[in-house]
Amino acid sequence: MPKTKLHWPKYEDSASWTKFKALMANRFGHVIGIEPEESWYAWRGHQIHLDTLSPAAAPKGTLILVHGAGGHGRLLTPLGAVAAENGWKVLAPDLPGYGITITRQNWLENYSEWPELIADLSAEAEGPVVLLGMSVGGMTAFRAAQIQPSLCGVIATNLLDMGDKATFKSAARWPWLGALSLKVMNTAPWLMDAMPMPLALVTPLDAMTSDPELQTWFKRDPLIGARWVKGRFFRSLHQYVPPRPDLALPCPLLLLHPGADEWTPTRVSLQVYDRVSSPKHFQELSNGSHMPAETPAWLELRDGVLDFLAKIEANGPRGN
Q1: Collapsed DSSP state (helix, strand, coil) of residue 148
Q2: Domains identified in the chain and CATH numbers
Q3: pLDDT digit string, tens, across residues 234-250
Q4: For residues 251 and 152, is the Cβ–Cβ distance under 8 A?
Q5: SS3 for 111?
Q6: Is the overall model pTM greater than 0.85, yes or no?
Q7: Structural contact between residues 198 and 192, judged by C-beta atoms closer than 8 angstroms
Q8: CA-based nearest residue to 299, from 136, 90, 78
Q9: Rounded CA gap, 281 and 261, in Å?
């Protein structure tokens, strides 16, 4: 029997969300004081799970949070709460194939829908609209901004060109696994496409954080490390054809890269950043893992995001 909307999944009071909040508070001191409002956004046959954090007064604009290829939108709540407390409406979708989004029947895992979804969501949001992407979400936000020219800004913690073979290999849990995946997707793509893989096996989730308790949670949580994703998604990620060949943006770019990111070191993001021809600014956080919850990286990330949003607010929304 298909699920009715009444029986669709939710994060509220779930063991996963409760544990994550406790870890953020107990291990890092980040108390999440705003509970996201959950809703569903119908898009191309998918039912996209959407978290919304609303400010107390009329919003200054909309910040859309873009997760990576190993998490979901709810994980970005600590940063979203900061923006909402400072007057911004925040949207955090679970992109197709991840989180609790319900994908359409017979969906073929295709990364290209990610930037297209973010672009469409941005077009409907209250402006000015800014994207904030973490991990693979940084480049997803970047490509979405190339599709949607009315966006006012892009913030990223990482800029990973997963179409680059060296970057793709280094992002895998082991370089040999990345190399093997590239070989299989080129010689037997049908085999790669059909092969389901747990994220804890193919991605180095220990590098997500320096905290051992949070590392264990990442690896065991059913929506993260214990989630199985078909190889076709990773093939489509590597073979993605962007909307334009250059790295120009219609809006400013801010790169806030964690200084102690063992998964994707700063130099990997700078390979992309250095080629961006649009107005841009780079800051390396003093420390911070791939998900920079550690102090002082977290404080620098928070302040960098808020300063960027304040500048966007001062400039006002852009026309289409």
Answers
A1: coil
A2: 5-161+245-314 (3.40.50.1820)
A3: 989 999 999 888 999 99
A4: yes
A5: coil
A6: yes
A7: no
A8: 78
A9: 19
